[in-house]
Structures are given as structure tokens and as C-alpha cells.
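Lab meeting, action items carried over

1. Structure of the two-component assembly. Owner: GW. Status: complete.
Input record:
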Amino acid sequence: MQMTVNDKNDIKVIAFTGNLETNTAPDAEKQINALIESGATKILINFENLGYISSAGLRLLLMTGKQLKSREGSLRICSLNVTVKEVFDMSGFSMLFNIFETESKAMGGF
Amino acid sequence: MEFDTFKHEQDVIDSSEAFLATNKTEDCLVAYEKLLKEYKKLFKVSRRLVRMSDHTEEQLKVSEEALSKVNKRMEQELNVGRDIQMSMLPSVFPPFPEHDEFTINAQLHPAREVGGDLYDFFFIDENWLCFSVGDVSGKGVPAALFMSVTKAMVKSRASDDLSPASIMTHANDELSTDNESSMFITFFICILNIKTGEMVYTNAGHNPPHIKRKDGTIETLKKLHGPVLGVVEGFAYQEGKTTLYQDDMILLYTDGVTEAMDPDENLFDDQRLFNLLSSRNYETVEDLVDTTIKAVEEFENGSPQTDDVTVLALKFLNPLEQSIIHSLDLIVKNQFTEIDRTNDSFNVFADEYGIPSKIRQTMGVVFDELLNNIISYAYTDEHEHEVEIKIELSGDHLVITIADDGIPFNPFQKQDPNIKLSIEEREIGGLGIHLVRQLIDKVSYQRKVDKNVVTLVKTISK
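Predicted assembly:
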């Protein structure tokens, strides 16, 4: 799994390549925590190149969402593939997060 | 000596025989206890009569009469034991004329003094046939009753359990508990898929059966999977696997065959049986069973048969199924990095058989959740453990079994989490299993012997 961070205005755009699961989530969590610690409040996670996400990855999103909310920031997620979308729907996460079809749509009004 | 004193005994014997005729195990045990008591009494009386016999000629005559009466009763009792034994066994041949996938035949020749051999076969469901032979230690009514109890126990357990190891483990536990008479039984049990020829078997201290392949080679199923039943309570039996192909035969037997004696007290032995099996081609199961029984009789050449002789043969007739099953067996350790290895192996398998990427992603989630659960929670020690994963692809079905030797735990028993809570209220516990249940078409859990076995069925729409 690879995680890249790009700054677009005041938004941190995080892109994942690979899968978010038991073995990759802890590392991603560390990196995201570091971003939040350093003051990031707007985070967009782009899942375009994500294969699948398991509950370990969902846990990471939940933590990130909770943390940003407590700092009056916000989290957006975009570009879910079918499998990821399915997992989001099954877990109720579709209703929990602001989800967008594409990165450009997600950037609008952020 | 007043022979009216036997009136009570006769009543007990009569009523006991009536009980035995019902064939209910508990009733039989009660009846047997009574019989044994009377048996002992009659022995005492007869011994006394023998001692008295040197007194007068008249007394001698009386004694002889008494003895012959006692003998007659003993013989009656032995007949009862034999009747119990024989009435428990399937006796109509061919037993499944509507099936052309296999043929089966068996014979049990009881020794003069009744023993405790048994054979049995029955369908567990439309695809799986269970067949077995066993040999109870000891002889007489007790052995016959022990045998009938075992037979009933195995059959009842097999009705919802396709694992011979698990069936043996449960039967052994039941038989070992309060086994005051210290009887035991050797047992060989097979469960055969009559469509595919796949066979799983467990040998509990029994003689090793032989498989005669179509090309004439003989394979002996030598491995023992545990001790005789009824002795070591709590023992976890294992099982072996093999496949029968078209025209293969399997021969099960008891030690009455290999330990039959000729007048010079030579044993029939394993080698003679092996030679008999390889000496020529046996077209039918009847031929093989008859020939074996006859060979033992000829070998004995008039010496009295000291033990039951049991022979069971099955011939598999079904041609290999066209819908080939592809399978992958994996053994992974209880380490998180092994989840990646599982996915890598699955992806290679998926590539080979054209399993679409959507399914690979789904299985990625499923392996992550289930293996994470096992690695995190199944083990209370710090040791390395092995988790067995089997992946089978047949037609459009993917069947995955995951077996771990951790503490008994059914992951699917947990309630689904409330997925409608807000972000602050949401907790992550239980979500993984919830996902598995949603992503997979059919999930099931079984505790088998000392393992948690999870079975998943996923239909592939290409």
C-alpha cells in the first residue's frame, strides 16, 4: 500500500494505492495523525486506486473523522470502486461520511 | 434337590428374553444384568451338584439332569446374544439397488461363542454414504450389547456430522464415561461421496483396510488415527482422506480373518489376506466377500472358529465427474503478515481459473477479517499455531473453509452492530464479521473435534 499527500489550497488530498486492511491501516493511521497534529483540518481521501477496504481501514476512517470533527475540520472521501462502495453501504459508512464520485466534485465548496 | 427352585430363574430369563427382543439398548442392559445374575446362580448350583454327584447313583442322575438344564439355559443366553448381534446388522443385499454409483456387500460369521463384531452402512444424505466395521473386546451378551450401543451412537452422530474424526471423538467420549466393565471396541469408519469418490476415514485401533485399485495395485490404509473406542476419554481422533475411482474396491475386515487358526495353530495373517486380494481380479463385491470368508474356513480346516469373522467390500462404479473441482490448500501461521500471503496465493489461484477481480477484492476483505479475528483472539498462549485454509472452485461456486485450533468460538454468533449510529457513537467492534456475513452468500460454523471450522460459499458471477 502506498499513501501520497498533495496540498491543494488548504486541503490535504490523500491518495491510496493498494488495500487498506489489517497490515496497512496502522501505518496510514500514523501518517494521517501526523497531518492532523500539524494542523490539517480539511482532508480529502481519494480511493480511486484502492482495491478493497476491510474493517481495519474503516476504523481508520472513523478515527480520522472523529478527530477532525472535534477540531471543527472535515473529512471527505471520493472515487470509491464497486467493492469499496459495497463495504461502505454494508457498514453504514455511506451515511456517515461525505462521499463524492470524483475528486473535482469533492473539491467543490470544501 | 428340588428343581422348582429354578422357577424364579426361569421367569427372569423369560422376561429378560422378552426385553432383549425389543432391541432397546437400555432395556437390553437391564435385561442383561438380570441374566448375568441368574447365570452366576445357575453356575453355583451346578457346581454344588457336581460335588454331590459322587454320592449316589440317583443323585448323579439328578445332577446330570440339572447340568444339562443349565447348559441349555446357557446356550439359550448365547443365542439371545447372537440374535441381538445379527438383528442389528443390515441384512438385505444388495442394499441400495437404486444406486449405480457403487455396490456394497458384507458378511459376519459369528463364532460359536457369540462375539461383538459389527458392520454397518447407511446414507447420511443423498451424496454421503457411511460404512464401518468394528470389533468389541470380549464375547457373549455383554459384547453384543456394547456393539449395539456403539452402532446406534455412531449412526445418530453421523446424521449431522460428516467428519469421521469428530464422530469417533464423540462416540469415544460417550463410551469411555462410566465404562465400568472396561470393554472397548476397535472401529474403522468411512464416509464416501458416492458422486466424486472422495472418502474420509478414521481408524480407531482397527485392522488396516485395503484398497484394490482398478489396475490391481493394493493400497493399505495403515495409519491409525487414535486408540480403540471406550478407553481414553477426551482423545481427539484424526482422519485421513483418499479418493476411490471407477472400479476401485475397498475391503474392510475384523481380526477374525487375520487371526483365524489352522489345526497347527498357524495364523491366517495379513500376508495371506493380501495375497488373496492380489491373486486375481474380483468382478463383484459378493465374489470378494465370499472368497475371503471361504478362504478363512478352508484355512481353519475344521478347527473351531474362535472369533467372529467379518468382511465388508465396496466397489466404486461412478466415472470421474466432468465438472472438475480445482482446489488450493494453504497452511498459514498465526501472524498478521500471513494474511498477505493468503491473498497472494488466492490471487494466483484466481488468475489461473479466471476468477474476476471483484471477487478477489471481496475475498481480500473476507480473509482480512476472519484471519485477523483468529490471530487476535483465538489463542490464549504465545505459541505458533497453524490455520488451515482450503479453497475449492467447482462450477460457479467458491467454497472456502478455514480451520483453526484456537479456543471454541463461533464468530457468526455475535449480533450485528448498529450501523445507523452517528460518527461519534459508532464503534468498530463486530463490524468485520458483519461485513463477512454480508459479502458471502452462505456462512457456517462448526466446532469439529479441537478445531473451529468456518465454511464460506460465494457464488461467482463472471
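2. GW to write a short summary for the group page. Key points so far: Chain B has a mean pLDDT of 86. Chain B touches chain A at residues 336-337, 339-340, 358, 361-362, 364-365, 368-369, 371-372, 419-424, 426, 428, 431-432, 434-435, 438-439 (CB under 8 Å).
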